[in-house]
Specification:
Structural class: alpha/beta
Strand content: 25-35%
Radius of gyration: 23 Å
Helix content: 25-40%
Largest sheet: 5 strands, mixed
Order of helices and strands: HHEEEEHE
Length: 141
């Protein structure tokens, strides 16, 4: 009968999986690259369509209901305006990031309006804020 020899040291198994890269703008660019490859787009045109035209970061001083002054950060991204003015709303959330706003401007506005042939470009805004904590006078109920 054969005996099985166990190694003296057990192989190291990571307790947590490596962190997955969930950068929304990088994911949008990967999806775009796959579509561009399928459509055989010119490399120069690919670069233009992958890159936002304009990015603006702003500080928004806001007087809260309790009288305290708080400065919030906001972003506005104009992804592509070659088809017309940039269409896109504003996202209010405590977890808003610039990469998220860039991805939303590209996917939700530039590419979506182009696919359905609407004469608008793509833009999106985002403000790092908790809507329920903001002054009530600024929100429609």
């Amino acid at each position: 009968m054969a005996t099985v020899v166990k190694p003296a040291v057990q192989p190291m198994v990571p307790r947590i999986a490596p962190r997955e890269d969930l950068n929304p703008f990088r994911i949008a660019q990967i999806q775009f690259d796959m579509a561009a490859e399928f459509l055989k787009l010119d490399p120069g045109l690919r670069q233009v369509l992958r890159t936002p035209k304009r990015i603006l970061e702003v500080s928004l001083p806001t007087k809260m209901d309790n009288g305290q002054l708080k400065v919030m950060t906001g972003f506005r991204v104009q992804h592509n305006i070659s088809r017309g003015p940039g269409k896109g709303g504003i996202r209010y959330h405590p977890g808003v990031t610039l990469d998220e706003v860039k991805a939303l401007a590209a996917v939700d506005d530039t590419w979506k309006t182009a696919v359905v042939n609407v004469p608008f470009g793509g833009a999106k805004g985002g403000i790092i804020a908790t809507p329920s904590a903001c002054p009530k006078a600024n929100w429609k109920e």
